[in-house]
Amino acid sequence: MFDKLFQAQQKAEEIKARLNNIAVSGEAEGGKIRVVATANKEIKEVSISDEIFQDGDKEQIEELLIVALNKALAQAENVSQTEMQAATQDMLGGLGNLFNKG
């Protein structure tokens, strides 16, 4: 039983490490504002085109940045959930085998 719990903990750490290496992005205004994050929801890069500064006011830039950030974080959440669901199914399968042994 403890082996299964240890394996589950190891699996969770593996997933976290894998999510740190998966990049997701969000864009606004046709890519003029771009945000890159990890699937663990850590913002790694923000890129804003010089065009935005020429065309937009501060409030518009802030709103577009929020849109890009939210898109990147939504993608990160989707990837994270997919990874966790796969791991949970693997673990449940292993626990089912544990309880069916007799």
What are its keywords?
3 helices; 3 strands; cytoplasm; rod-shaped; alpha+beta; Ybab, Chain: A; YbaB/EbfC; 3-stranded antiparallel sheet; 102 residues
Number of strands: 3
CATH domain class:
Alpha Beta
Report the order of strands and helices: HEEEHH
Number of helices: 3
Using the coordinates shown, work out and report the CATH topology: Ybab, Chain: A
Helix content: 55-70%
Radius of gyration, whole Å: 20 Å
What summary fits the major beta sheet?
Answer: 3 strands, antiparallel
Mean pLDDT: 86
Strand order of the largest sheet: 1-2-3
Total number of domains: 1
Segments where pLDDT lies below 50 for 5+ residues?
Answer: none
Terminal CA distance? 14 Å
Shape: rod-shaped
| Estimated structural class | alpha+beta
Q: Strand portion, in percent? A: 15-25%
- Within CATH, the superfamily carries the name Nucleoid-associated protein YbaB-like domain
CATH architecture label? 2-Layer Sandwich
Family: Belongs to the YbaB/EbfC family.
Protein name: Nucleoid-associated protein FAZ19_20545
Pfam family, one: YbaB_DNA_bd
Function: Binds to DNA and alters its conformation. May be involved in regulation of gene expression, nucleoid organization and DNA protection.
